[in-house]
Amino acid sequence: MIELFRDPGFNFIGRRRWAYLISVLFILAGIGSMVAKGGLRYGIDFSGGTLIQVRFEKPVAVDRIRHALETVQMGESVIQEFGDDREYLLRLPLAQLSSEEVTRRTQEALAKDSELGKHEIRRVEFVGPQVGRDLQIQAIYAVLWSMVGILVYIAIRFDLLGGLASIAAIIHDVLVCLSAMSLTNREMSLAILAALLTIIGYSVNDTIVAYDRVRENRAKGARRKGESFETQINNAINQTLSRTVLTALTVFFTTAVLYLFGGKVLEDMAFVLCIGVVTGTYSTIYIAGSLIVDWAGWRDRWVGKRKKVVAKA
Amino acid sequence: MPRHLGVRIALVVIVVAVSIWYLYPPAKTINLGLDLQGGIHLVLGVDVDKAVEAQVERAGDTARAELEKRGIGVTRVERRGTAELAIQLASPQSWDAAVKTIDEVLSVFDRKEADQAAGRLGLALKPREVANIRDLAVRQGLETIRNRVDQFGVAEPSIQQQGENRILVQLPGVQDPARAKALIGKTALLEFKLVDERTDAETALRTGPPPGTEILYQRRVDKETREERKVPFLVQKKAPITGRDVATARVSIDQNTSEPYVSVDFNAAGGRAFSELTDANVGKRLAIVLDGNVHSAPQIRERIPSGRAQITGGFSTDEATDLAIVLRAGALPAPVQVLEERTVGPSLGADSIRQGIIAILASTALVFLFMLVYYRLSGLVADVALGLNLLLLMATMAGFHATLTLPGIAGIALTIGMAVDTNILIFERIREELRAGKTVRGAIDAGFARAFKTVIDTHVTVLVSGLILFQFGTGPVKGFAVTLMIGIAVSLFTAVFFTRLIFDLIYMGQRKRETLSI
Prior knowledge:
The structure holds two protein chains of two kinds.
Chain A: H1 16-36, H2 44-47, E1 49-56, H3 62-70, E2 78-82, E3 84-92, H4 99-112, E4 119-127, H5 129-157, H6 160-183, H7 190-220, H8 229-239, H9 241-261, H10 264-303
Antiparallel strand pairs in A: 1-3, 1-4, 2-3
Helix pairs in contact in A: 1-6, 3-4, 5-6, 5-7, 6-7, 6-10, 7-8, 7-10, 8-10, 9-10
Chain B: H1 5-23, H2 26-29, E1 31-32, H3 34-37, E2 39-46, H4 48-69, E3 74-80, E4 84-89, H5 95-105, E5 109-115, E6 120-125, H6 127-152, E7 158-162, E8 166-172, H7 177-185, E9 190-194, H8 201-207, E10 213-221, E11 228-236, E12 241-242, E13 246-253, E14 260-266, H9 268-280, E15 286-290, E16 293-296, E17 308-311, H10 317-329, E18 336-344, H11 346-399, E19 403-404, H12 406-435, H13 440-472, H14 475-506
Helix pairs in contact in B: 1-11, 1-14, 4-5, 4-6, 6-7, 6-10, 11-12, 11-14, 12-13, 12-14, 13-14
């Protein structure tokens, strides 16, 4: 029988301060990169604009394309290689020009330049200012509502403190994903939002498994007299560690495969899912598990009486 | 003996049979999204205020005509803002008669302002009427666009209202997106207006058009240099004949120039009006105006009693065909604007499908192998359950006519990873129970029972985010939410119910068995 961990007895909670430090440093690096780059980069789904994906018959240099676009006064377009040097994304900010006009001019410019050879326009996306704004607002609502939904579920299933710690873990995961995106120069798009919402739902799974174990141990009376809350949480995390890691591993496999083979269009989404699975597992142990210990500690100190946390049952 | 074995086996067999029946043949039963099969996704915003404005202006014209018919002098009738009319009477003496007439003719307006001494009236369209006009504009727009698309010939188009004043148009497999867009988005308001030749267009440009006239332009493209020139025309504002008078339109080829043109047949009333108009204005020029652009302005040589007109203007065959389509389908009641467009070419869609299939196969293989190596025979059971999960997922999608999109493929890949999670939770629990010294039978029972609560928890949280995503998502993202939710829901059946059944079958009657391949 292959076993990943068998009652490993790691002292996770005891080393939580290091984990806090690592999380804070990574998120600070991410925020730093966002600030340096003038905010999180928004794709046209949210910022509005036109995106054109062109495939050329033969390899083409960026300068050549820019030169061609300059002849139709569209030299300020962002030109980005997409996959290989035959395929490019052209992006234009929202302007006075309509999407038809932009597509028409681009096609005209590329066709006129004989050095570029034949090309095929494979994708055109245009998002107007109204739609972009609507999507931005809806995106924020979607993220907030899913957090509220999960908070309510955990608060009913366990208790409010557990719910809050889970939400803190979720916020941590979202921040880590956004930081990773900014550090690797990826853009916020609808697909990324879908990935983030999925991570929000998924990341809380392991947290539930661990909390459930705390409650079960108590019900069984496995708690030795004088065992601290910290030890209880740490034991529960250790006991559920192999399933936490295994379940994350299978999802990580599939998202990694998606990242490697799923094609360029899905790449960013798969990237965020990969990062999300890793940070979701990490945050179960170090954020949701650790924070609840610290919060319970603070609360006990303030209220001055020891109260059972997590399990109401 | 495990309970209800026969019933459980029968249930699984029925589910599998129904799935295969729904799914067969896959190429026909699975709906591919526009991002996979190629096509156009357009969100059009209907400028409903324009429809209200047009209605208010028409009402103003009617009121003015009626007042004048009854001998009440009117100096000015004009629209203010979107839905208000201001009427200035020539003299306050006729106040009572005027108010009576206005109340009769403009019954859908509320009186906002009445200054008898100044002979001035302010009216506003009733809010309910405004809402009606807006609603009607969107619905008529939808119908008109549907007509045009039908005539253009697109297989399985989808045209729906979205929100209050948006129209979502989805056209799978369209080869020439620019042409389809032009066809859908054109207002196609056809007007025949007399050219005002009392004033020179150039002079009017400098001094401003005289009352009752306006300046419209004709675009002329030089064939050699492809340079565009705008030629101004001074025309009368009033259009005696419009697209509403058109019965049908078709493309014909000019025998002399072999250039295509559009031949328009008027309906009975339109034919009569055209005949009268041409009779009364022989020698003058008649501008044919489409969406505010002059197409041509031929001279009226004689009365035209045939009720037929020709629109020429250097069209390509496609342009002429499309113009004939929009004239037949009628004008949009209000202009539309493209708010969002997503066009995917067929080759990109094909690439996406290929890469998606590779990704799904590779992740299935990886997860399959992992489970087999880690859990041995039990892993194999989980793998069979995973296969069943994918079958049910696709069958459910076929059954609900759900659309498979590119992010939807990502959802399937994710489902593969998450569906076996349920089995991992159960198997880890069984291992634990075995370590605690339970018998094989007891460990299986306890493992399934104890893990079940956790399994429900994990399902609920993923479904919560899935539902919110579905609620929020547009097209492709919705497809992701759909596959993820179905996959997760189905895994309750495959990873719990089905796996349990197989376990029961394998270890049935082996009460003394001491080892479990897990």
